[in-house]
């Protein structure tokens, strides 16, 4: 599993302590060109004042077909952010309006 650069998905910055990451991996038993992308909401944590491995809060998986071009990537990220707002992780006002647009 490898981290995909955030600029490729145009991920917005989230209010502390949350941040977004995208991972790409090829499931076992599938052709090497077939990827799954995992969008993750993570929380930065500190244990006794020391930065610790960020905790996974929630995630969503999509196929390489669903994110094959910039418009589809934007739509996928907007859908994931809308879900985060509905579930109460972040407020809608904390996100740039452009990031929530699905077109």
Automatic annotation (TrEMBL):
This is Uncharacterized protein. It comes from Nocardioides zeae.
């Amino acid at each position: 599993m490898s981290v995909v650069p955030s600029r490729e998905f145009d991920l917005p910055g989230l209010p502390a302590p949350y941040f977004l990451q995208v991972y790409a991996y090829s499931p076992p038993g599938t052709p090497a060109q077939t990827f799954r992308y995992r969008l993750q909401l993570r929380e930065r944590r500190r244990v006794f004042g020391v930065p610790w491995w960020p905790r996974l809060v929630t995630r969503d998986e999509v196929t390489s077909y669903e994110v094959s071009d910039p418009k589809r990537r934007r739509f996928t990220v907007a859908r994931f952010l809308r879900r985060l707002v509905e579930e109460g992780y972040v407020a809608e006002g904390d996100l740039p309006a452009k990031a929530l647009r699905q077109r």
